[in-house]
Amino acid sequence: MRDPTSGASARAEGLELHQRPRVVVEKMLNPDRMLDRRLSQAETRGIGWDAGLGGFIAAAITGAYAGAAVVWANYSSPRFRKAFGVSGKLAMVVTPAFFAFLLKSHLVVAYAIADNRKYIAPLSDQR
Questions:
Q1: For the purposes of burial, counting CB atoms within 10 Å of the CB of 51, is it exposed (0-12), middle (13-18) or buried (19 or more)?
Q2: pLDDT digits (tens, 9 = 90+) for 88-103
Q3: Is this prediction's pTM over 0.85?
Q4: Which H, E and C letters describe the chain, residue by residue?
Q5: Which residue from 95, 73, 68 is spatially nearest to 84, judged by alpha carbons?
Q6: CA neighbours closer than 13 Å in the CB half-sphere of residue 119
C-alpha cells in the first residue's frame, strides 16, 4: 500500500519496486570483490606464509591425534601390534597429517582468491 504522504507518485514507486530486484540480482551476478591490480610480491608471500603456517598447525594437531591413536592401539591390541610393521604404523600417522596440511593450505589460498579484499586488508595491517 502506497503512503499518500510520501510525495512519490504511484508510477515512480512502482518503477522503483520493479527496478530493485533487478539491481540486487545484477549485484549478485557481478560481485565487486576482485582487486583491480595484481597482488604485490609481499601480498603473495603473505598469503603463502599464512597458508603454510595454517597447514603446518593443522598437520601438527592431526599428527598428534593420529599418533596418540596408533600408540594406544599398539599398546592395547596384540593383534594390531602383529598386523602392522613400523612403516605401516608410521603411514597411519603421516598420511592424515599430510592431508590435513594440504586441505588447510588449499582452503586458505582458496579463501584469499575468493575474497581477496577482505583477506589482504588485515594481512597488510599486520605486516
A1: buried
A2: 999 999 999 999 999 9
A3: no
A4: CCCCCCCCCHHHHHHHHHHHHHHHHHHHHCCCCCCCCCCCHHHHHHHHHHHHHHHHHHHHHHHHHHHHHHHHHHHHCHHHHHHCCHHHHHHHHHHHHHHHHHHHHHHHHHHHHHCHHHHHHHHHHHC
A5: 73
A6: 21
